[in-house]
Amino acid sequence: MVDAICKELELRKSEIDGEIATIYFGGGTPSLLTASEISKILNTVYSTYTVIDNPEITLEANPDDLVFQSNNSLSRDEDQQESLNETGMAEKLKSYKAAGINRLSIGVQSFFEEDLKLMNRAHNATEATACITLAKQYFDNISIDLIYGIPKMTNDRWLKNVDQALALAIPHLSCYALTVEPKTALEKFIKKGIVPPVEDDVAQEHHELLIARTEDAGYENYEFSNFSKPGWESKNNTAYWQGKSYLGVGPSAHSYDGKQRSWNIANNAIYLKMIAQNKLPLEREELSKTDSYNEYVMTRLRTKAGVSLLKISEEFGENFHDYFIKQMQGHLESHLLFRENDQVVVTKKGKFLSDGIAADLFMLNLK
């Protein structure tokens, strides 16, 4: 698979004209890769494309992937095993840094055992904290994921999760409302009444508490789900919200060049076979002006910068500009949107509803 990913990078060289500013190992579980495999992919990127000096290079990781496990764990006492785990994790973190990774995004989700069990996570609360504490010895640029709106999660427990992250001095937090995916154990538990359903009102309250707590701690909510200390925003994610082009490689990966979207086949075997035949296993879609306008509204409305009315006029035309102005009036009156000169942003009151507000602003029929 690593060889195929490197080959796809070479086959798609013509799709990127400018310099690469961010490289992101994400989706699936990239922390299962060895440092040498990561180095091989990065070496291919550097030899095939033009990369800026000091790009942001992120690796998504789960705490359980970073915690070393000995094959002889059953024959050792807990103190010996803990020492082995820490030594192994330190070696893994050092090897990632040596390979070129300079930012970690760790999927903690929660610091409470009951939450992790409900979400069927492989790590425990102790590993979550230990992983971050050790990672900070090798990486300054660290982000963690936290989940709110979990069934039975009280406001107090959610705030303790946030406070734990702040106490660990993590410079970047990505916080998401729990979604129940189909055909998962959680969905079955909810249907059987074993676990109460996810409630939007609870998630909204958690999000409002999150905004207040992080704001007091000096974090900026620069995008709906993302909070950072000044200067620690994710360059990769920010580029996405700004509508910049990106190239995704590997099975299921998506790409965007400003005019087209493309997505790779999800089937690993077919992906490998087609790459071996020097064929790109992807489909492409040309974006209409309406598609591009809707994309712009959806992504920008989630950010602190908001939507530029001037940009809508210049890029999409007066019909789109006038339509946006008309559609936004009700949300202005409800204090869900705020207009300041050229910019239209979501208010604190409207933040949790930003996706629904964006849907009201979408154009459905103009080309």
How would you describe this structure to a colleague?
The protein has 367 residues and is an alpha/beta fold. The chain contains 15 helices and 13 strands. It has helices spanning 2-11, 35-48, 63-66, 78-99, 113-118, 125-135, 155-167, 185-191, 200-216, 235-241, 268-276, 289-300, 309-316, 318-333, 354-361, and strands spanning 20-25, 51-61, 103-109, 142-148, 172-177, 220-223, 226-228, 254-256, 260-264, 282-286, 307-308, 337-340, 343-346. The strands form 3 sheets. A 7-stranded mixed beta sheet has the order 1-2-3-4-5-7-6, sandwiched between helices. Helix 7 (155-167) links the parallel strand 4 (142-148) and strand 5 (172-177). Helix 13 runs antiparallel to helix 14. The relative contact order is 0.08. Mean pLDDT is 90; it is low at 69-81.
